[in-house]
């Protein structure tokens, strides 16, 4: 199959170059080029947006060790179906990806079974247990793009400080799941507020996130290392991040679709598909997150795609694992909320948050249509109306609260290195 | 009115009319308890399973006796003796019970939402006998029944609930029922145990028992659990008793007709002095008697609704 294609007549939006206009895009042997290759395949992109392939910097592929939830094969197909050409894999697998051997295994497995680019992260600490530093240098040599103990949060400020100092030596950002374990302990099941009170469920207060965001601002300022706060959920976190950025601190943050689309009210029937960590919060938090996106405080969108088997979620609320799948609904949710309903960003800004911004943070040679870069393209129809049907997911996960939601905006074709890996069914 | 619920999961689900209807039905069953022959054939041929995944003696016994007096066949299953202790999921355990044609499952569980979870998945009726910190609907009903029986009304009655509100399913069910029936509810305790969010459910919150004591028609004292002290919610039972315990001196400031209630088991000398528990204001044993009548009413009503067909 030829890896040369000419994508003709679309609205080309490449925020990395400030481009927005009707043009042709050429991929020659898997790489963007200024001129078409002879005999290249033709794609008619009229009426569609042609943009760099989307990058999701927060994905749980569950392999190795948790194949009942997801595999690299199914997770990358879900990514393709959602318009993502690259995914950043979190290290909370079984065993934890805290060693170059596991990183190499994942890369090999991704090359054999994956259909989109997989960029592994390594654990900050051995076993993500928050104590001894994992072999970050050896994992850097093996190809990790960041370190994180995601799913858990390094509780010792001393360990986190040393991790930031040490990872900075390799130019690696530190991604942090911001959660103070004394304020949001193992019992915490949902946002602490009215609904947790009604439902009698132990609460996860905003301050448990905000205290760690504030800590990370201080550590980033002191070390100069990029610390990236994952899946922000609370209004106070946005304020802290805004202030840190204004002071020039290397702190950043990402937002997930569910934290923009739902509040804790979604748990009123103990729906375990609305149980996630950090939890769904209140409308005032959604408003603050939207405000943070509007003014650029938050400049990265990610999914926190967290597949679980049906039998794992179909239990009493307290016993259910946290998380929902997100790869196949994210673009629809983001377009629906950010473009159509709230209109907090325009299309180039939205695309930048899914392409060039995460690419720059992670040091990837992607997120751009520049000649010479890998030919990853997402063809987006930002107005296409569709209805979420979890039975159609490529992911093994069915754990979504968005089943049946009508959305506007969908990737209609996903191209990785010149190869089409997804075409929307008619 | 016509009762249409196969389950009783939470009083937050019920209308004021439904709550009153259960109370009226309970009044009739209370009369049965006064007869020489205390048994009626209402649930003859029906099978009721007491599935108690969390320890309980009082509530389980009350439900068991209620089922027996309605002529149901009653089976008790405790967590330690069930397959749940072997790792079987709650859903599978309940499906197995249903396959044995249980008509009613009375569930006590440590997880909030457990009764809701089963009710949505079973054709059998599910009665919540307490789910974590969520609700204990029959306790709420029996408390309101006792207030109505003693004071003749619920609307306008000033009820104070004292203690571990944060973790209390009894407080939640009481609050839901009392607010719906027009009572004025004050929640009393330290801020660590009485979250402000309860105001949105219609309660007034105070941290001073002495400020409100003389104005209450009913004071309902919740059991203070030692685990809470260990978790740092208050410094110790001594300080708790000094601030929020209903001792004899405080009881002397109650209105003459005020009722003292407690869902049991009592920690004498902590939330309630023994002399008050046994004193003239106390209706604690009435609560136990009324609990039986209320549970008979709930079992009868839910057990008489035809099971829903498989979808």
Notes on the structure:
The complex is a heterodimer of chains A (426) and B (311). With 426 residues, chain A is of the alpha/beta class. Chain A has a single domain (53-367), classed as Alpha-Beta Barrel (TIM Barrel), CATH 3.20.20. Helices cover 30% and strands 22% of the residues of chain A. Chain A has helices at residues 72-81, 100-113, 136-142, 157-169, 194-199, 206-223, 235-246, 257-261, 283-294, 310-313, 330-341, 347-354, 356-362; strands spanning 5-14, 19-28, 31-33, 41-44, 49-52, 54-59, 84-89, 117-120, 147-148, 174-176, 190-191, 203-204, 227-229, 251-255, 300-301, 377-387, 406-416, 419-423. In chain A, strands 1, 2, 3, 4, 5, 16, 17 and 18 form an eight-stranded mixed sheet that branches. Chain A has a five-stranded parallel sheet with strand order 9-10-13-14-15. Chain A has a three-stranded parallel sheet with strand order 6-7-8. In chain A, helix 7 packs parallel to helix 9 (283-294). The longest helix of chain A is centred in the middle third of the chain and has 18 residues, at 206-223. In chain A, 61% of the residues are buried. Chain B is of the alpha/beta class. Chain B folds into two domains: 11-135 and 289-303, Rossmann fold (3-Layer(aba) Sandwich); 137-287, 3-Layer(aba) Sandwich (Rossmann fold), CATH 3.40.50. Chain B is 38% helix and 14% strand. Chain B has twelve helices and nine strands. In chain B, the strands form two sheets. In chain B, strands 7-6-5-8-9 form a five-stranded parallel sheet. Chain B has a four-stranded parallel sheet with strand order 2-1-3-4. Chain B is globular, with a radius of gyration of 19 Å. The relative contact order of chain B is 0.17. The mean pLDDT of chain B is 93. The interface between A and B is medium-sized, with 18 and 25 residues.
């Amino acid at each position: 199959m030829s890896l040369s294609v000419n994508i003709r007549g679309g609205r080309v939006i490449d925020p990395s170059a400030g481009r927005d206009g009707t043009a042709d895009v050429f991929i020659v042997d898997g790489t963007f080029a200024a001129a078409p290759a002879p005999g290249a395949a033709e794609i008619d992109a009229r009426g569609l947006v042609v943009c760099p392939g989307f990058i999701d910097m927060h994905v749980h592929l569950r392999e190795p060790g948790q194949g009942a939830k997801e595999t690299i094969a199914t997770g990358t197909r879900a990514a393709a179906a959602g318009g993502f050409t690259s995914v950043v894999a979190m290290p909370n697998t079984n065993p934890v990806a805290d060693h170059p051997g596991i990183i190499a295994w994942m890369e090999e497995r991704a090359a054999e079974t994956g259909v989109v680019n997989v960029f592994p992260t390594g654990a900050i600490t051995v076993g993500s247990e928050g104590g001894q530093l994992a072999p970050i240098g050896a994992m850097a040599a093996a190809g990790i793009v960041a370190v994180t103990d995601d799913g858990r949060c390094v509780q010792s400020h001393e360990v986190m400080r040393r991790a930031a100092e040490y990872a900075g030596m390799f130019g690696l950002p530190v991604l942090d799941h911001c959660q103070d374990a004394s304020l949001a302990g193992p019992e915490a099941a949902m946002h602490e507020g009215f609904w947790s009170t009604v439902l009698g469920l132990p609460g996860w207060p905003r301050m448990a996130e905000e205290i760690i965001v504030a800590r990370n601002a201080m550590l980033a300022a002191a070390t100069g290392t990029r610390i990236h706060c994952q899946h922000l959920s609370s209004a106070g976190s946005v304020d802290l991040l805004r202030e840190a950025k204004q002071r020039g601190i290397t702190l950043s943050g990402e937002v997930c679709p569910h934290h923009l689309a739902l509040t804790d009210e979604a748990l009123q029937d103990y729906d375990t598909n609305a149980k996630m960590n950090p939890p769904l919060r209140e409308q005032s938090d959604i408003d603050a997150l939207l405000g943070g996106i509007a003014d650029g405080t938050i400049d990265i969108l990610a999914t926190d795609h967290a597949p679980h088997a049906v039998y794992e979620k179909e239990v009493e609320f307290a016993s259910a694992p946290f998380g929902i799948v997100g790869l196949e609904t994210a673009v629809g949710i983001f377009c629906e909320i950010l473009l159509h309903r709230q209109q907090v960003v325009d299309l180039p800004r939205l695309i930048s948050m899914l392409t060039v911004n995460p690419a720059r943070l992670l040091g990837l040679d992607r997120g751009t249509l520049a000649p010479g870069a890998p030919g990853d393209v997402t063809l987006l129809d930002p107005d296409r109306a569709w209805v979420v049907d979890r039975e159609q997911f490529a992911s093994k996960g069915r754990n979504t609260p968005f089943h049946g939601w009508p959305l506007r905006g969908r990737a209609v074709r996903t191209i990785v290195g010149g190869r089409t890996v997804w075409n929307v069914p008619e | 009115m016509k009762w249409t619920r196969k389950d009783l999961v939470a009083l937050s689900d019920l209308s004021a009319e439904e709550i009153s209807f259960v109370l009226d039905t309970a009044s009739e069953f209370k009369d049965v308890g006064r007869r020489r022959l205390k048994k009626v054939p209402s649930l003859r041929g029906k099978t009721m399973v007491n599935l108690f995944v969390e320890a309980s003696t009082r509530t389980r016994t009350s439900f068991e006796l209620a089922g027996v007096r309605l002529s149901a066949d009653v089976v008790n299953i405790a967590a330690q003796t069930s397959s749940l202790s072997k790792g079987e999921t709650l859903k599978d355990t309940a499906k197995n019970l249903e396959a044995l044609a249980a008509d009613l499952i009375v569930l006590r569980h440590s997880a909030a939402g457990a009764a809701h979870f089963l009710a949505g998945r079973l054709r059998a009726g599910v009665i919540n006998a307490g789910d974590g910190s969520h609700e204990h609907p029959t306790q709420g009903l029996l408390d309101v029944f006792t207030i109505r029986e003693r004071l003749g009304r619920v609307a306008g009655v000033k009820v104070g609930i004292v203690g571990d509100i944060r973790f209390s399913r009894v407080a939640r069910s009481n609050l839901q029922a009392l607010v719906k029936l027009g009572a004025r509810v004050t929640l009393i305790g330290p801020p660590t145990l009485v979250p402000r969010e309860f105001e949105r459910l219609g309660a007034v919150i105070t941290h001073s028992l002495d400020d409100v004591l003389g104005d209450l028609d009913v004071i309902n004292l919740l059991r203070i659990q030692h685990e809470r002290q260990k978790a740092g919610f208050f410094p110790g039972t001594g300080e708790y008793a000094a601030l929020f315990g209903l001792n004899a001196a405080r009881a002397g400031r109650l209105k003459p007709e005020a009722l003292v209630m407690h869902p049991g088991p009592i920690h004498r000398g902590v939330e309630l002095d023994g002399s008050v528990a046994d004193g003239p204001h106390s209706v604690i044993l009435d609560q136990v008697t009324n609990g039986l009548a209320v549970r008979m009413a709930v079992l009868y009503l839910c057990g008489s609704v035809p099971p829903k067909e498989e979808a």
